[in-house]
Amino acid sequence: MDKIKIAVFASGNGSNAENICKYFAASGTAEVSLILCNNPGAYVLHRAENLNVPAVVFDGKQLEDGTVLSLLRDNGIGFVVLAGFLRKIPDAIVYEYENRIVNIHPSLLPKYGGKGMYGDKVHEAVFAAKEKQSGITIHYLNERYDEGSIIFQKTCDIVENDTPATIAAKVHALEYECYPQVIDAVISRLKDNNARNK
Active-site residues (predicted)? Predict the structure, then answer.
């Protein structure tokens, strides 16, 4: 069966994007064939170049006017992964890729989700609330921030001397460990469903 082609959307450093690329290059179950970025200065573009993965930079207008959706279609993309992408995905892409777009959020949703809650802002809020646990949530994307169906969660304990930075490090370690494997499992289910429906 042909490998499903993955597009990874990222806006910044891209360490998760790189981790996902390397995972699928080794596993061979799917391939990251495109990295899409809305920030021309993002370090993820250097990572893409080093990995020999094509990367495309686009602006907000191109995201909204169908240019990015056409790019996904033209490249035969079958699955979309968000890895630190800081723009809302337009409904047209969400609908076309229903149950084929996943996102990772650095908290245990529904806590500390929603518009404006990303990165260090999440860890600072978790710390300020004196939570005993944080973690990651991997979920399908829908039209509303961080409200898609949850696929997977994993927790980490927060201890007395933790800071927002140490919480972030624990959560990031979970992202590295779990995100590629969960993506792989979701794609495997997708392939099985497609095979059954043929």
Answer: 105 (proton donor)
pLDDT at 133 over 90: yes
Does the annotation list 52 as a binding residue? Answer: no
- 161 marked as part of a ligand binding site: no
User: Cα 76 from chain centroid?
Assistant: 19
If you write DSSP's letter for every residue of 111-156 in order, what string do you get?
Answer: TT-STT--THHHHHHHHHTT-SEEEEEEEE--SSTT-SPEEEEEEE
Give the containing element (helix H, strand E) for 10: strand 4-10
Helices (H) then strands (E): counts for the chain: 7, 7
CB 7, CB 31: distance < 8 Å? no
Residues taking part in catalysis = 105
The two three-digit tokens of residue 151, written as one number: 């696929």
Average confidence (pLDDT) over 72-99:
95
The SS3 call for residue 165 is helix
Amino acid type, 140:
Y
